[in-house]
């Protein structure tokens, strides 16, 4: 176990907690087994590129996990990344309802500006 792996594991756990995922859910989203995720989080090994890529699709800040630096570049906040991950997991019906809400909200705001 080296200190670099321990730091990566700590940040991976922080990202999992920020997204509100269990270890089982996080493992599934990364395409790895539960024990493999535990090994990553404990610092016994470091995540492979394939898992990191899959987690990024669910809002994990991979640059942060690997380097400790925020990877959003000011483009998306961690909350925005979490919402994007939830969006990708949502069924089409829920997505349609959310889009309908935001379209109506945007119309109402524009009406107030007139």
UniProtKB/TrEMBL annotation:
Descriptive protein name: Helix-turn-helix domain-containing protein
Gene Ontology MF, one: DNA binding
Domain of life: Bacteria
CDD domains, sorted: HTH_XRE
Region (Disordered): 1-22
InterPro entries registered for this protein in UniProt: Cro/C1-type_HTH (IPR001387), Lambda_DNA-bd_dom_sf (IPR010982)
All residue ranges annotated as the HTH cro/C1-type domain in the record: 12-65
Basic and acidic residues bias spans: 7-18
Short name of one Pfam family: HTH_3
Organism (species): Craterilacuibacter sinensis
Signal sequence annotation: none
Lineage: Bacteria, Pseudomonadati, Pseudomonadota, Betaproteobacteria, Neisseriales
């Amino acid at each position: 176990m080296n200190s670099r792996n321990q730091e990566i594991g700590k940040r991976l756990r922080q990202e999992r907690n920020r997204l509100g995922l269990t270890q089982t859910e996080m493992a599934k989203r990364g395409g790895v087994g539960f024990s493999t995720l535990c090994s990553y989080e404990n610092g016994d090994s470091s995540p492979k590129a394939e898992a990191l890529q899959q987690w990024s699709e669910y809002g994990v800040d991979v640059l942060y996990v690997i380097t400790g630096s925020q990877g959003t570049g000011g483009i998306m906040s961690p909350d925005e990344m979490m919402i994007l991950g939830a969006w990708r997991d949502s069924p089409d019906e829920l997505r349609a309802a959310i889009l309908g809400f935001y379209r109506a909200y945007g119309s109402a705001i524009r009406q107030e500006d007139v």
